[in-house]
Amino acid sequence: MRPVIHGIKNCDTMKKTFAWCEGAGLAYLFHDYKKAGIDAATLQRWCERLGGWEALVNRRGTTWRKLSPEQQAITDTTAAIALMQAQPSLIRRPVIEFADGELLVGFDPEALDRKTLA
């Protein structure tokens, strides 16, 4: 089964990810969560696998900076999931989900090499 790359098509980091996959001959599926949305069950699963929501929220991006202090004051996973669903641009990119359930968050060529060459 091909890995699923989750992200936003026109993001520079996503373009690097797509180029890496094409260069490595890695076939993948793409889910644009800005256009297609992202369901709460997927975000919950990711939070559980990653040990919390913190690894998923991009606190360096423009979307985060535009949030009010009240919105940025995430207190739990439920609040984080609701915010990520309302503002999918907050989710770090890419999130690559492999058939074995492993997740890679962010573009990391070395981690991709280790995972795809294993």
List the helices and strands and how they pair.
Elements (H helix, E strand, L loop, with lengths): L3 E4 L4 H13 L4 E4 L7 H11 L11 H5 L2 H4 L4 H10 L8 E3 L5 E3 L3 H9 L1
Helix pairs in contact: 2-5
Explain what this protein looks like in three dimensions:
The protein is an alpha+beta fold. The chain has one domain: Glutaredoxin. It contains six helices and four strands; from the N terminus they run βαβααααββα. A four-stranded mixed β-sheet has the order 2-1-3-4, with helices on one face. A hairpin with a 5-residue loop joins β3 and β4. The longest helix is centred in the first third of the chain and has 13 residues. The radius of gyration is 14 Å and the shape is globular.
